[in-house]
Amino acid sequence: MKTIVEQLDPIFKPESIAVIGASKNPAKWGFRMINRPIRCGYRGPIYPVNPREDKFNNLPFYRSVLDIPGSVDLAVITVPAAQVPGVIRECVSKGVKGAVLITAGFAEVGHDGKVLEDEVVAIAREGGLRFVGPNGMGIWSAAGMLNLSFDQVPLSGPIAFVSQSGTFGGSLAEIAGIKGYGLSKFISIGNQADLTAADYLEYLADDNDTRVIVFYMEGFKDGARFADLAREIVRKKPIIIFKAGRTGPGSRATQSHTASLAGSDEIFDAICRQAGLIRTQEALHSFDMAEALACQPIPRGRRVAILGSGGQGVVTADACAALGLEVPELDGDTVKSLKEVIPPHAPPPRNPVDFAGTLRSSMEEAAVVEKLLSRDYIDGVISNAPINPAAFAAMFGIAGMPKPLLDMTKSAIEGADYFSSLPTKYGKPIITIRFRRFAHDMVIDILRGAGIPVYDTPEECARAMFALARYAEIKRKARS
Amino acid sequence: MKTIVEQLDPIFKPESIAVIGASKNPAKWGFRMINRPIRCGYRGPIYPVNPREDKFNNLPFYRSVLDIPGSVDLAVITVPAAQVPGVIRECVSKGVKGAVLITAGFAEVGHDGKVLEDEVVAIAREGGLRFVGPNGMGIWSAAGMLNLSFDQVPLSGPIAFVSQSGTFGGSLAEIAGIKGYGLSKFISIGNQADLTAADYLEYLADDNDTRVIVFYMEGFKDGARFADLAREIVRKKPIIIFKAGRTGPGSRATQSHTASLAGSDEIFDAICRQAGLIRTQEALHSFDMAEALACQPIPRGRRVAILGSGGQGVVTADACAALGLEVPELDGDTVKSLKEVIPPHAPPPRNPVDFAGTLRSSMEEAAVVEKLLSRDYIDGVISNAPINPAAFAAMFGIAGMPKPLLDMTKSAIEGADYFSSLPTKYGKPIITIRFRRFAHDMVIDILRGAGIPVYDTPEECARAMFALARYAEIKRKARS
């Protein structure tokens, strides 16, 4: 019996792929499934299969997968549903190790489709071929340099995203990329006829490229196994889940979408708590949270210090408190220590520390963050990112770089370096927010390069810190 | 006694401005306050005032506002706090009509600052000079082509944004711009020493460039007057408010930020309900909601039809239901009527209508939207925006434009036009979501140009529809 890694590696790191149903018509899936891997860096041989076509650019078409001269790890299948059983039989004969079934028209369309789906599963099981789908939108694997899902290669990173919705999931993945979050894998799981959410979870648990696993789910085929696996896996990796179909109208809609019974939302919530899953209320929140979980230390508790200008600090404090995080008052010692950094005319520091117009450099700002992080009663810090005036100068078309701006820019870079050193030094997380106007990409790049997440809103920061605190509690519970 | 329009027009549509405390040092506010209007299109004369400087590019500096040869509508003041009373006295002598006080160090720093602030108010009141601030970050006025707040000119549009936090407010305004929302005015109100939130509300009520008024507030100086005014103004314009300081830690922070007493959150909530204010839970939500309120018809009720692909429809239905919107089942007549458009093999339509892989063109999609919108029991539609494959072709570097993509692109443009005609025809709102990957800017531009809002997530769509339905209720209540 092969391990899950042995079974799924040929799908996510294939040495060769066949696209069965490949097409030269750009409006068809058979076109995308061959054009995307070609254009997005896949390194192994790609074999287009279609008896009615001759050449795709320089690649010759094969009449059947059986005609391909070399071995095939992965078959990507876009032929009409009725032809899929025959194609899978041929794949088994050829010794293909795995498949991605794009084709729709199976269990999601009703009884006849379900019968056809069961037939495909039976053929594949007997032939030892595992498959993704059907009725999915493909996969992306950074390790395999294999893109079947996106029109542009996404950012690579430590977040695996498993989605029961292909189109919507792909859209979420793309927005995540625009926000700067990188993916290790994207899996559009479709009808889960063979491989299920639990199988992907088991596989990703051992995937070294994946530090956080994000699920978009409507309903489970094997919920009990998923929960059992999750309970173990959260000891080493956080699992975030967004569940659609949580209301009456939403639940009704999952039935026609993925033939899923959404089930009671209260029961699902209880399962999440027991299994140690972090559940999110909006689909995109999953990625904001995953970004922090992928790169920041886990805090000891829920006590947050906030450093920020005016309204940003107020709103961050509100957002933290609303999520059940604590924003403790500073003690006399901390106040005294902060006063060494803050100019004499500044108001006495409180939490949130409002530095508006008082800190003279990003180095001072980083020093304040360190002083907060060093306190026993502070478990993590949310701060604004160092301000870099270079962008400001560029926007105003200031010729050359006047001395005061040059000094501020130097300070911003030093500040970003200083910031970046602190989470490791204290074993506590730092979450940052950028003021876009002044936050030049160079500073943001330094922070992100060092694993400090950078967000656009106070609420995103608070949710990220909440996720870290929640995961700390999940890990503690799992150990006990 | 001058009307509020006569008092504030010289501030927001000044024919000439003096910048008192102007500076050639790019790190100083005195630099920004002169450089921003120069670079961002202000058309009238700009007079820099600073006895220690000579020239700013080609503009000569004046020693005092009294030395300026022409008349001055607006004084922008960045001198240190202690000098402000003298400067205001000179402005009054000069006949300056309004001022924007950037300078900090007044009531927000404690008792002495409060005394100084009161002195400034007394001088201004006696001289008939109204002012914004102090301790603010300036204003932006599209009508006045006057930018004192941003490093880049924001998008112009129908949303006025009044913010008690300058830096954070400016950051929000900038993100709103990135999301495609345009502003008529931005006002960083600072300490509200003279002009208060209620004054701006009164002014904006009569501002033809403003269709929706958005507030970020921490605490009110004249809450009762604000609520009285709001109760009247919501008859003609929606007012959206985000209130910071709603939790213990947040409320504590407002005191040091803007010397505001945040007050009880429950009481504030009750005031919002009574006055007809739409309150938002996250600062950025205000702008998503404002965008729809600025351009879409007000629905008769809360009954929403959803057209969308798979998971997007499910999540939209969930988000609507969670906000108290209804997602009614379709009746037999509607189902029959939709079947005329949907291909025969598609599953029977429900609400949400899942068209995944079944609609052959954006024209068909728009036809489905029309059929839904025409029903008595549907008050508005949330739909995905027409898909334009042009971007897809461009990304894949497809040479020329193959016939199938050309047809789809033509259909997308026709579909966008068709969509755009529907809200007026039926007097009901349409809210759209884009799948970034396929949604080319051309289609989005057509929709937005016609006042159809386009969002990135199902939750944003649901909140926008909720705001429309809520405002309809507010208007009904105000009339009765």
Brief synopsis:
The structure is a homodimer of 480-residue chains. Chain A has 480 residues and is of the alpha/beta class.
Explain what the structure shows:
- 2 copies of one chain form a homodimer.
- Chain A is of the alpha/beta class.
- The first copy, chain A, is 44% helix and 15% strand.
- Chain A is built from 17 helices and 19 strands.
- Chain A has helices at residues 4-12, 29-39, 84-94, 111-127, 166-178, 197-205, 223-233, 248-258, 265-275, 285-295, 310-322, 332-339, 362-373, 389-395, 403-426, 441-449, 458-479, and strands spanning 17-20, 46-49, 55-56, 59-60, 74-77, 98-101, 130-132, 139-141, 146-147, 156-163, 183-188, 212-217, 239-243, 278-279, 304-308, 353-354, 380-384, 430-433, 454-455.
- In chain A, helix 6 packs parallel to helix 7 (223-233), helix 7 (223-233) runs parallel beside helix 9 (265-275) and helix 15 (403-426) runs parallel beside helix 16.
- The first copy, chain A, starts with a helix and ends with a helix.
- At the A-B interface, helix 5, helix 8, helix 11, helix 14 and helix 15 of A face helix 5, helix 8, helix 11, helix 14 and helix 15 of B.
**Helical content band of chain A:** 40-55%
**Count of discrete structural domains of chain A:** 3
CATH class of the largest domain in chain A: Alpha Beta
CA-based gyration radius of chain A: 25 Å
Q: Mind telling me the CATH superfamily name of the largest domain in chain A? A: Succinyl-CoA synthetase domains
Biggest sheet statistics of chain A: 7 strands, mixed
Give the uncertain stretches of chain A in residue-range form: none
Named at the architecture level, the CATH assignment of the largest domain in chain A is 3-Layer(aba) Sandwich
Quote the average pLDDT of chain A.
90
Quaternary arrangement of the chains shown? Answer: homodimer
Could you tell me how far the N terminus lies from the C terminus of chain A, measured between alpha carbons in angstroms? 33 Å
Widest sheet, order of strands of chain A: 9-8-11-10-12-13-14
Question: Approximately how much beta-strand content do the residues of chain A carry?
Answer: 15-25%
Q: What structural class do you assign from the helix and strand content of chain A?
A: alpha/beta
Instruction: Find the CATH topology of the largest domain in chain A.
Output: Rossmann fold
Extended strand count of chain A? 19
What is the approximate shape of chain A? elongated
Chain pair with largest interface: A-B, 84 and 83 residues
